[in-house]
Specification:
Layout (H helix, E strand, L loop, with lengths): L14 H9 L3 E6 L36 H16 L3 E6 L9 H12 L4 E8 L6 H11 L3 E9 L3 H6 L6 H14 L4 E8 L6 H13 L4 E6 L2 E2 L3 H7 L8 H14 L5 E2 L12 E3 L6 H14 L15 H17 L1
Helix pairs in contact: 7-9, 9-10
The protein binds iron/sulfur cluster.
Length: about 325
């Protein structure tokens, strides 16, 4: 297998390419931190902090979180501009739960983001239990002006794993929320986050998660490896010998096991996660090197002669998917 021309040589459908299809050029996500809490941190319904979550609520650039939103956008855009020569951006409301406070607050923040001419849309991170009719109305209003994507922290479809993580919501609720969102906001771009490396995880389970994901009305997935960060409940479990982080080899196989069954028209944000701050990572050590772990997964794809959708049995429906599908068939034929 020499790579897939339709996916820029990659064995999976990267979100960067999906954005390219949508916007006609490369688009970069600008992460910002505006929310300051979430239901777990506020102890709603007796909930406690997710066992893996650091004090920054999964922010990408926590060092800027005290800055005004406009400054965060300017600083982070500048960083991306210098590093990648980036010109178009999506403002990503990433940290904590962005639909937990008043809807008007988020609306004002979206308006600030859209004042930037080079911002072509917004991405909003939230949880399955923090949606409401008011939030749907806001998303639909915003969709009349720009591209809106929502990333839902689902993490697992296994109820026991969700309890172990202290998520405070069930898999059943996550599935119900996905359908509810899609029904209320048909034009919304919708993605889910899933985490691999959880206790009791099996390859069969990952395959079933992928088959279930194919049934859901979503556009993209983001995959994380569960890592242990400083000052988290998981660090205590790790230090007590109650949690063993997944190895690089096992993790790469989990990602591939998931993607070979995944519908090739569902785009993929990333294959591995990194700590917000390098000095926060406790274990596993391999998760500290983003590029090396990403490359390892790609190499493993090659070894297994695998690619996204290799075992997908469903129907492809979109124009993008149809063209991807025909190219994929061509590529598979060439590889034989
Ligand atoms: S992962 Fe999200 S919901 Fe869980 S404690 Fe962190 S910010 Fe809150």
């Amino acid at each position: 297998m020499s790579g897939f021309p339709q996916w820029q040589g990659l064995p999976y459908f990267p979100i960067s390419l999906y954005y390219h299809y949508l916007f006609g050029e490369k688009v970069w996500k600008v992460p910002v931190s505006t929310a300051t809490t979430c239901p777990n941190r506020d102890g709603i319904r007796g909930m406690t902090v997710c066992n893996f979550c650091d004090e920054w609520g999964s922010a990408a650039y926590p060092q800027h979180r005290e800055e005004h939103l406009s400054s965060q956008i300017a600083l982070n855009k500048e960083h991306l501009r210098k590093r990648y020569n980036a010109h178009k951006f999506l403002v990503y409301f990433q940290a904590y739960t962005n639909t937990f406070s008043k809807t008007q607050t988020l609306e004002k923040q979206i308006d600030i983001a859209l004042k930037n001419k080079d911002v072509v849309g917004v991405v909003i991170g939230t949880r399955p239990d923090c949606i409401s009719d008011a939030v749907f109305e806001l998303w639909n209003r915003t969709l009349k002006k720009t591209f809106v994507s929502v990333e839902l922290g689902v993490q697992s479809f296994d109820e026991d794993q969700l309890i172990w993580m202290h998520r405070g919501h069930t898999a059943k609720l996550a599935i119900k929320s996905i359908y509810r969102i899609r029904e209320a906001c048909p034009d919304l771009d919708l993605g889910i986050h899933l985490m691999f490396g959880l206790p009791g995880e099996t390859r069969e389970q990952i395959k079933n998660f992928s088959l279930l994901t194919n049934q859901l009305p979503i556009n993209n997935v983001k995959l994380h490896n569960l890592h242990v960060l400083k000052n988290t409940p998981l660090e205590l479990e790790y230090n007590a010998g109650l949690f063993r982080p997944i190895s690089k080899e096992e993790y790469a196989d989990r990602v591939i096991d998931f993607l070979v069954y995944l519908n090739p028209e569902i785009s993929v944000h990333r294959l591995t996660a990194v700590a917000s701050r390098h000095d926060e990572l406790v274990a596993p050590a391999w998760a500290g090197n983003k590029m090396a772990s990403y490359q390892y997964v790609l190499d493993r794809f090659k070894e297994r002669m695998a690619y996204q959708g290799q075992e997908f049995q469903g129907h492809l429906v979109s124009d993008v998917a149809r063209s991807l599908s025909s190219l994929q068939n061509l590529n598979t034929a060439n590889a034989l």
